[in-house]
Amino acid sequence: MIFAMPNKPGEFSRFDFPEVLPAPLNGIWAILRNNEMLNWSEKIQFAAGLLPAILGGQAYVEAQDGFTVTDWMRKQGVPDRVTNEVFIAMSKALNFINPDELSMQCVLIALNRFLQEKHGSKMAFLDGNPPERLCKPIVDHIHSLGGEVRLNSRIQRIELNTDRTVRHLVLSNGNVIEGDAYVIATPVDILKLLLPDDWKEIAYFKKLEKLVGVPVINVHIWFDRKLKNTYNHLLFSRSPLLSVYADMSVTCKEYYDPNKSMLELVFAPAKEWISRTDSEIIHATMEELAKLFPDEISMDQSKAKILKYHIVRTPRSVYKTIPNCEPCRPLQRSPIEGFYLAGDYTKQKYLASMEGAVLSGKLCAQAIIEDYEWLAAREKGKMEAVTTT
Asked: Which distant-in-sequence residues (6+ apart) come within 8 Å of 129 by Cβ?
């Protein structure tokens, strides 16, 4: 992990996890070897504060869901400087919010991965744009198995039978979709808009009210030259406005360019900025970049010049992992027969993340496979009822 040093503009501090050491020794070594962000007294106090989590295991971690990162650190006697130096950046990277809002359970799960899995700190990038390198292979696989993918086919409403099971889905173009099983794999905010009134008081669905998506902004900037002070890695900016960033001309095969840099940055927390203009966002971003790259970027663009930029706003992204949200997260199998959910907000160990969304899909598929015989029998019963009628 590589962190920018705000008090030393243009410099970075590293946590290197040695390949030759197993977990958790490689993580302990990385922390002990870094003397630029935390002093020895702070490391000892932080280690002492973490000891209950290490000894208590998953049960302890889950019990900390009621605390914010800031409150938990103070409860454990960890100096505020540890939170400021490390966990502001980590909180924004994990959930796009600051440690005074983020549930400590989220951070402890991430730390456990670093300490228990040898490659838990490893980060990776797609080798190209997501539609081509992620979505298209999935669509091709579905097609190869006889499936169909319909674009621009938004669900308008879920129609129910008298027993409150799903009768069919009505699309915005008026088409009707009928199936043996139904999976809604959307952000939680969209699911809540689709819920039929007859379901809203069911405890499984009612608990979703507390789960809301967090706003985030992605900023893409193409420069007229190669920035020297970048790495083939994800970087923690430690900026008050920016979260993590990367030079995609170095980290991503499709954007590789030996002569020009393309920075992709996460602008977070974004709540106060999501409705602002592109020019305001790019101005604030350049102001922060001038601090990160003082020898290469200036506000007046007298150094590196912007060739083009693109702002992507996501008003509701992953669910906001604030305290006491964990009990509200649903299992993938709903209490409605033949109706299932998938998404980062559903129960799975990677919380609010792309990895969590993918894992939720696997768990959802597993639930459907487990229910296959029952679903087949249910559909057969419907067919026989229709034939009799």
From this structure: 254
Residues 64 and 72: beta-carbon distance below 8 Å: yes
Give whole-number Cα distances, 197 to 78, 204, 286, 342, in Å.
Answer: 47, 14, 47, 21
For the domain bounded by 154-208+322-388, which CATH number is listed? 3.50.50.60
> Which sequence spans correspond to the domains of the chain?
10-116, 154-208+322-388, 216-314
Domain 10-116: which CATH class?
mainly alpha
The answer to whether residues 354 and 314 touch, using CB atoms and an 8 Å cutoff, is no
**Residue 82 one-letter amino acid:** V
Confidence of residue 210 (pLDDT cuts 50, 70, 90): very high
* Gap between the Cα atoms of 264 and 92, Å rounded: 15
Q: Is the peptide bond before 269 cis (omega within 30 degrees of 0)?
A: yes
Taking the C-alpha atoms of residue 254 and residue 59, their distance in angstroms, rounded to an integer, is 43
CB 237 within 8 A of CB 243: yes
41-50 long-range CB contacts below 8 Å, 24 or more apart? 42/79, 42/81, 42/82, 45/77, 45/78, 45/79, 45/82, 46/78, 46/79, 46/82, 48/76, 48/77, 49/73, 49/76, 49/77, 49/78, 50/76, 50/111
CA-nearest of 306, 97, 321, 128 to 219 is 306
The 10s digit of each residue's pLDDT in 320-349 is 999 999 999 999 999 999 999 999 999 998
Burial (CB count <10 Å: 0-12, 13-18, 19+), residue 186: middle
Greatest Cα pair distance in the chain: 80
What are the pLDDT digits (tens) for 154-173? Answer: 999 999 999 999 999 999 99
How is domain 216-314 classified at the architecture level of CATH?
Answer: Alpha-Beta Complex (3.90)
* Global confidence as pTM: 0.89
